[in-house]
Amino acid sequence: MSHYCDLAPGHPFHGPYHDHEYGFPVEDDRALFERLVLEINQAGLSWLTVLKKREAFRRAFEGFDIDRVAAYGEAERARLLADAGIIRNRLKVDAAIHNAGVIQTLQAEHGSLKAWLDHHHPLDHGDWVRLFRRTFRFTGPEIVGELLMSTGYLPGAHRDDCPVQARILDAAPAWARSG
């Protein structure tokens, strides 16, 4: 079975993501929100499809500005559903808008989405899935697992012999601090 560490290096889209983002801790709520939206949109599709559309997602969701997205109404929803640059799925668009509002609540209660994640860490994958399902929309086991692995809350993004793994460990992801 192939691993992302075998497939990604040198690829024009997978390579930069694998080498500089995947598995590294994410501090910024806007970046965490972007990753959540991208993972939700990957459901049923390839990650390459999402990475190719990433810039279009950034434009469509106004740089993943949480407050702006949370305030989206019918006009913005219709704009997103008409945008051929992104994945035009009503459930996924609605989840992004709803989840932006959830993040606002978590920011008010915990100071940031990252602080909320840190508050609940460490959890095993199943407990994370249950927490996300109670909190967010469109967050099943694969989406939650990939989101948390890609942002340093769960291990497994890279093989131990992948050169990127040493850089990730130097960045002290949450899973390495708790283990």
UniProtKB/TrEMBL annotation:
The lineage of its organism: Bacteria, Pseudomonadati, Pseudomonadota, Gammaproteobacteria, Oceanospirillales. This is DNA-3-methyladenine glycosylase. GO terms for molecular function: DNA-3-methyladenine glycosylase activity; metal ion binding. Pfam families: Adenine_glyco (PF03352). The keyword Zinc applies. Zn(2+) binds at residues 5, 18. The keyword Cell inner membrane does not apply. Coiled coil: none annotated. Gene3D superfamilies: Hypothetical protein, domain 2. Keywords: Metal-binding, Zinc. GO terms for biological process: base-excision repair.
